[in-house]
Amino acid sequence: MTDGEQLSNCEKAHIADVKLYRYLLNHEHPEGKSKARFYERIGYTPDQAEQLRSDLIRLACSGSVRGVQANAQGRKYAVVGPINAPNGRTYHLLSVWAVEPPNDEPRLVTAYPS
What is the pTM of this model? Predict the structure, then answer.
């Protein structure tokens, strides 16, 4: 896979509830709280969590791969692209998706403004 291509098996992409609720939208998480503030500012409150999940999965398929990193567990893909936030504006995000064999389903690692 080269830069600019689409994430393989993006239609199988998933985001664990713990990643969504306890990381990306959690103002108390040591590493996620700045992301939670960003997402809240653009309209993704915990009540809008499922919309954020849908928008990030859509980004997995519509965005472009900008980098791939292999490790012992599998591969991580950096995918960039726009999302249309609940506040009516478009934001460009960098999302990271992990694919760990034998599973071929991309799993969200993180997502933040690019």
Answer: 0.93
Question: Which residues make Cβ contacts (< 8 Å) with residue 6, sequence separation at least 6?
Answer: 61, 63, 64, 65
Cβ atoms of residues 47 and 15 within 8 Å = no
**Residue ranges of the chain whose pLDDT lies below 50:** none
- The pLDDT score that the predictor gives to residue 111 is 98
Q: What is the pLDDT of residue 5?
A: 87
Distance CA(102)–CA(27), nearest Å, equals 34
Residue with tokens 């939208």: 25
Distance CA 81, CA 65 (A): 9
- Number of structural domains (the chain) is 1
In this structure, is residue 36 part of a structural domain?
yes
Q: Residue 82: phi, psi to the nearest 5? A: -90, 155
What is the C-alpha to C-alpha distance for residues 74 and 34, in angstroms, rounded to an integer?
A: 27
Domain membership of residue 2 (yes or no) is no
∠ Cα 95 107 22 (to 5°): 80
